[in-house]
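ugh finaly. both done.
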Amino acid sequence: MTLSPGRIVGVALGAVAILAIGVYGPAMLLGPLPEATIRVDAASAATGGPGAPVVLPDAGASALAIVGDDGTAETLAVGGAVGAVPIGGAAKLIAVLATLDSLPLPASGPGPAITIGPSDYTNYLDHVKDGNRTLQVSPGDSWTERDVVRATLLASSNNHADTLVRWAFGSAETYVVEANAWLEANGFDATRVADATGLSADNVGTAEELARLGALLYADPALTAIVTAPGATDSTARGVPDVIDHLREAGVRALSRSYTDQAGVCFIFSTVLPSADGGEPTRVTGAMTMMPDYETLDPAVTEAVTSVTAAAQPVMVITEGDEYGTVTTAWGDSAALIARTGRTDAAWGSDPGEASVAVEPFSTATAGRAVGTVTVPTADGDIRSELELSADIDDPGPLWRLTNPAPLIAAFFAAQPS
């Protein structure tokens, strides 16, 4: 049978229609959709910025450090001179720490008795004659180790510092050798002593290491008890005035306070910062030396304590609901990428790094679905939050699929294994 041209055209059209219905339609209606396009908004992805700065004076030499449970210290900030300078009466801290390293105070009780001999009494009279700070002793007096330590720390008594090291090391000369070896062994590279009192200009150190010395005091429970509650002693304890106490109204516990012509005013102190989340408080030690007078020292300490308290507050690095970019599709749907959870960091004045965004490929998703993460580097490690969609990204429907073959065909080939 001979087919007419019209019949041939009809058959061809029928075949095309069958193919369209049987192949094209299902391919377009059931094939993969093109992936959504992600655009990260660099401006909106900016982090919360640096925390409050820690403020230290330009005058003298100063430092602040965070105290660990084991007496270690992490330096927060250093101001003024960074090299070794005279440290004045801060040398008494070294006398106490070096002595207790080998002859520690007992966990409870006053410790062994120390008899005031002729050399101790003569030494006391010499300090009185020179106008140095003293606490009275008499020949034959018996002081406990705890009370001699209390007098050295709280009363900043020069004669008791000398008595302590003579008792512990046999002589002042032996003490100097042993104390400098102790400093070196404990990583105090710049700090050196020439006596137990700090009266010599050859007692030197950096403010950073002085702050670390203050932190080391809190590693000893007996010393912690002495400076935390100076008046809390048993009935056998001698009366020792707390002459170093200074700026208590500013939330400061003084650990050493002195003045010499070479070191100026030297002040070592601690303060406690409450936890913002109800956890353990943070202790901070500070040191300021070579300060010209108390009119310079007092506002500098107050400002340092105020600033470090502000700097300890958590910094909002990622804010819940912040937008970090947008998602768009070839068929016109769009949604914002928003942070699912807020994240904070106790930055201590450090500046969080630039936020980075990672999103897994997808074509459709419901509002609220986590599709990626935002990551911000900080000094303590990366901080992350999931990113979720602000609106639905829906399937475009059959009409769009049938009338937009090009993106669907491209998506089909892109989905094939390479």
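ok and the 2nd:
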Amino acid sequence: MRLVAFSVLSALALAQPAMARADKPTKAEKANSAATATFEAYERTETQIATIARLDDAPAGPQLNAVIVVNSDASIRSAQMANTGRLKGHTLLIKDNIETAEFATTAGSLALKDNRTGRDAPLVTRLRGDGGVILGKTNLSEWANIRSSASSSGWSGVGGQTKNPYATDRSPCGSSSGSGAAIAAGMAWAAIGTETDGSITCPASMNGIVGFKPTVGLVSRTYVVPISHSQDTPGPMTTSVADAALVLSVIAGSDPLDSATIEADKHKQDYTVGLGTSSLKGVRIGVLRKQAGRHPGVKKVFDQAQADLTAAGAILVPIDYDFPEAMGTDEGTVLYFELREDMGKYLSALPGNIPVKSLADVIAFNQANAATELRWFGQDSFERAEKNVDRAAYDKARANSFRLAGPEGIDALLAKHNVVALIAPTEGPAWMIDLVTGDHFASVGAGSLAAIAGYPHLTVPMGQVEGMPIGLSFIGPQWGDKGMLDLGAAYERARTAVLGKPRFKRWGE
């Protein structure tokens, strides 16, 4: 590996410095620029690998448990790709329910520890083809947090408990826990998470980064361990809206193996265009006041974000909205029904000698390996899903939940109040990790609306409460992904809150 670094340094030493002038650079100057990029890409990735070793693995470190496996040759690959495509050798960590050719794809479960398919998910193929380098796989809430109603976000049988870099005894949220924690800790340039309901946006909010859940159908789900074809989508997790927009520009597009993406090519675009000059002036934005919750610290941070938006020219429109109880109940019916069918299709088609081919097999595997898999919480959600076989009830629930979240939810609110987006805090402050009684979600945020409808949802850091990050959600209409990214980038520039940095210590220390 050091030979690569030496060759790059030699090229830099021999190249002549570029002269400042208006005409096109010479071949020597181009070579110098390319050599510089190559060296920087190599060194950047070396630093990230060292960061993972120090913060994730070292006995004397915080042991964040964010990353399951690392590609030790990623530095060389970054140098090789430094002048390629839009990503130019930048590293990405992939949530371990998304297939990559070089690693097992486990969904955090010991049942899939040997699931080496030798294939890339189409979204991974797109990343590699545009100059991206896969640095490794991230830990997650096992089976994307659908196994138990009393789970601890960020725990998996394969990866253990992921910790929040801002306070290591507090939750990273889930299920894209490792992706959120890793980017907050500087372990990679970007990560890919997946969301069914909150699994990108909640960990992004609690780990103080940007997370974007695209419109369902904009990004392929092929070779991604599924929960729900109605609500699942991968999406980027980054440190800025611009980086999220760049990643989305690369991974968006139609996939013949995923029928939900049939319209993606018609809607995809370069999401970075105009991002640096997007404006809030005269933009009408709906404020979901009741979804801010009751925590005074969250309300204070949200008030400041609203003041920043107003100062930048936005017109804020207060909206009183209550979630219909039936929407959440019907969502549960949908997820449990689709889980059994979609997971069964995925598992039964896996190559190799995998011990589970259906949800029933997974339940049996967990029972047989209860000491390791069921030590902290059970699998009541799996067991409920296995019994959920009433298709008529499912069809009715899906139609109703989508209607309440989409046409009579987001669409109706946008139209009635003549606004282009809805905002609310994404989630409350991170709670204490509790393997005994599970997660303690606050009644904050409106992400379920976007999740059930399949509409875009962006979260951007807006401040902290007692050192714990809080995100600001931008929720918009179907295929309104570009608009949400434009608003988020404009808000980033207008934001006056001072954002803290990870402390890698227990809260209060």
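summary for the 2nd one i guess: Residues 150 and 438 are 5 Å apart (CA to CA).
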